[in-house]
Amino acid sequence: MASTMPADNVTYTPANSITVTEAGTYEINYFSTVSVALGTTLTLAVRRNASNIPNATISRLLAAGVGSLYSGSVIIDLNAGDVIDIVLSALVAVGVTLGSGVNASLTLKKLN
Fold first, then answer.
1. Contacts of 71 (CB under 8 A, 6+ apart)
2. Alpha helices, DSSP H only, in 21-81?
3. CA–CA separation, 8 vs 87, rounded Å?
4. What are 42-98's pLDDT values in tens digits?
5. Which of 10, 52, 57, 105 lies most in the core, judged by the most C-beta atoms within 10 Å?
6. How far is CA 47 from CA 35, 38, 50, 71, in A?
7. Distance from chain centroid for Cα 75
8. Residue 41 DSSP label
9. Are 106 and 10 in contact (CB under 8 A)?
10. With bands split at pLDDT 50, 70 and 90, how would you rate the model's confidence at 21?
């Protein structure tokens, strides 16, 4: 997962997450390319402190072996200490394959 921010506004712990160190209004951009081993509904969610951000949660019914691009952007007020990450979930246990190359990205940009 790629992430970008000036080092003084965020940290990257815990692993595969971004922790905000300065409160403010942020633009969050995200994408991922995935496919599933069997047809099911797959949800990608950007989370704040382990809770889905409603405007950054996408659910799709995917056919087996067909790639899908999940992407979006949301502007949200964040507090110092908020942890932002991306998760995938499905209604049933299913194998998920990430796309080749850059297969997931999460970026935060402080607006004010």
1. 30, 31, 32
2. none
3. 25
4. 999 999 999 999 999 999 999 999 999 999 999 999 999 999 999 999 989 999 998
5. 10
6. 21, 25, 5, 14
7. 14
8. E
9. no
10. very high
